[in-house]
Known about the structure:
- With 112 residues, this protein is of the alpha+beta class.
- Helices cover 22% and strands 28% of the residues.
- A hairpin with a 7-residue loop joins strand 2 and strand 3 (50-57).
- The chain is globular, with a radius of gyration of 16 Å.
- It starts with a strand and ends in a 10-residue tail after the last strand.
Amino acid sequence: MSIVKINVLTVPEEQRETLEKRFAARAGAVEGSDGFEWFELLRPVEGTDTYLVYTRWRTEEDFQRWMADRGQAAHGGGGAQGGAQGDRPKPAATDATLWSFEVVQQTGPKQA
Length: 112
């Protein structure tokens, strides 16, 4: 079965709009990747400043390949435009942690 990667981002309230706009601007950056299955950006509703970035992949190898190829560039890890480190925008998140899970059970809505 699939694997799930959840990037846990601490985002101060004043940076939330910036983070959401950056994700909207990169729409389509991962969808064509081999093994990619799903993406969701989850905004906190109350009591936390933590966003969750949920991606689902066919295999760990597919995720690792994406990270090595386009993933690093999509997350600012590939060279900065113009070649100067100072050209990159400041990160909207103040902290990030990556959680990894294997899907062991799944279900969806019943079809009528």
